[in-house]
Amino acid sequence: MKIHVVAVAGTGMGALAGLLQSLGHDVSGSDVAFDPPMGPALASWGVRCLSGFDAAHLEPAPELVVVGNVCRRDNPEAVAAFARGLDVTHIAGALDRLVFPGTSPLVVAGTHGKTTTSAMAAWLLESAGRQPGFLIGGLPKNFDTSFRAAPTRPRRLDTEGRLRSAPFVIEGDEYDTAYFEKTAKFLHYRAEVAILTSIEHDHIDIYPTLESYLEAFDRFVAKLPEDGLVVANAADKRVVECVNRSARCTVAWYALEGEETFGMPPHWLAAPAELGARETTFDLYAGGVACGRFALRAPGRHNLKNALAAVGAVAQGYGARLDALGPALVQFAGVRRRQDLIGEPRGIAVYDDFAHHPTAVDETLRALRQRHPEGRLLAVFEPRSATACRNLHQHAYEQCWGAADEVHLAPLGREGLAADERLDTERVVGALAAQQKPAHAHRSIDSVIAAVVASAKPGDVVALLSNGAFGGIYGKLLEALQRGADSSSASAPPSR
Question: What pLDDT is attached to residue 494?
């Protein structure tokens, strides 16, 4: 087909365009900019890149127009596509029509851990010889790209005798599809096997109440077929309630040893042996049977749970042998922007991480402390998402910095919020001061950089936490740290 993608340069839409091109379609895409890394990547995949949004980009008329969910209803290409009666869909619709048929989708859903767990599952399936297709919202370091089409091959039996087609691993995003269809993406994903990691109220711009958020997950679980499988976190009360309400399929609970499981006996259980700086080891139990000792290089208890869920889904859902998964798991290299070491200027380790929800912030900082038990940990946080910029989790943001020695808060990444709706960063600083923890609320990114350069010493760790571009802080901070605290650009930080 001739396919045009509107707003193609985002992480998800760009990967979709590359995936469709790899399937043999003729793909073009438009956007306001094609900056690295996505711009050059699109060109290398053979996607024709058209600058700006212009109705002329729809000439000659494509057979399908895919509109990104960042587009508003006045986007000239979307307006023209509907006016001309062209076939229009969104990312979830394109996947449903062109990618999922003939595959057995493994959908990783939950508030936290989707990207890492999806990347782990894809790598484990690859190592077990299952040749999975995948579409992951980050770059998994064990693969060259964030997407791959699934091969066409005969269906295989899983461990319970069910026939499965070639697996296709995808993050089950609960965010909406497009301005013209306000449904959760994961409701379109044809899940046969699912992982449900956690449920905490998020995306307040789409789900104004907790009840509306829970309803989306109820619908997702209810759509799993009777011969499907959901691997669910027994230590998350809302996950337990959701699955018990809605599941018609087989349920396999997972948990770490010692966790409260709300009456659900875990089929997949991990008993941590050593949470080391470079490796986490654990004993794996399946159905109460010891399966041996496994190891994982990604630090943190949350990554151990991600790994446990991925192992359970791959083994029970697709028949992969556990003796093949152990060696593969220790080779998992992680995902870009998830505890991603981006530089060590003057012996100061600088990490980039996507964490923005307070639970994810807490878990990420604890994992970095596990990896770096020596030196101070400086947390640098940009409240950028619709939820993070609001005061929905005000109290949680005052409590989630336990592993950090110093906290720097950047300005809110969204403007125009009412004063009684915004996250109060001054109040966060005050709460941390009461805990005897140094903290600063900054007026600018330059102020953040100056403060971190003035404070960080060799042997320290800096964690940059944002789900966006963070005002281009990454390269600027690395250069400033390399110059050192005596640099003229590292003057005393103006903070409020």
Answer: 47
Please state the length of the chain.
496
Same domain, 141 and 253: yes
The tokens describing 290, both together, are: 């010891």
pLDDT at 493: 46
Residue 158's pLDDT is 63
Nearest to 249 by CA among 269, 268, 223: 223
| pLDDT score recorded for residue 203 | 85
Report how far residue 469's alpha carbon sits from residue 57's, in angstroms, rounded to the nearest whole number: 28
Nearest to 339 by CA among 187, 470, 463, 476: 463
Domain stop point among 33, 61, 89? 89
CA angle 192, 198, 199 (to 5 degrees): 105
What ranges make up the beta strands (E) of 248-365? 250-256, 268-275, 280-286, 289-296, 340-343, 349-353
Full residue range of the structural domain in which residue 25 is found: 2-89
Q: Do 204 and 317 lie in a common domain?
A: yes
Task: List phi, psi (to 5°) of 133.
Answer: -85, 160
Residue 216 and residue 322 share a domain = yes
Q: Using CA atoms, how far apart are residues 487 and 450, in angstroms rounded to an integer?
A: 10
Nearest to 299 by CA among 345, 368, 230: 368
∠ CA 476-479-482, rounded to 5°: 145
- Structure confidence at residue 161 (pLDDT): 65
* Per-10-residue mean pLDDT, the chain, length 496: 96 93 96 88 94 96 96 96 97 96 96 93 96 90 93 66 84 92 93 96 89 97 97 98 97 97 97 84 96 90 94 96 94 85 94 88 91 94 87 91 95 86 92 94 94 95 91 93 64 46
Q: Which pLDDT does position 154 carry in this prediction?
A: 59
Give the pLDDT score at 488: 39
- 261 residue type, one letter: T
**Residue whose entry in the numeric block shows the structure tokens 């040893």:** 257
Residue where a domain stops, chosen among 330, 356, 380: 330
Cα-Cα-Cα-Cα torsion 56, 62, 67, 71, nearest 10 degrees, comes to: 0
Cα-Cα-Cα-Cα dihedral of 449, 451, 455, 456, to 10°?
A: -10
β-strands 406-409, 181-184 pairing = unpaired
Report residue 406 CA to chain centroid gap.
25
The reply to whether 118 and 186 lie within a common domain is: yes
Number of other residues whose CB lies within 10 A of the CB of residue 351: 23
Q: How many CA atoms lie within 13 A of 482 on its CB side?
A: 9
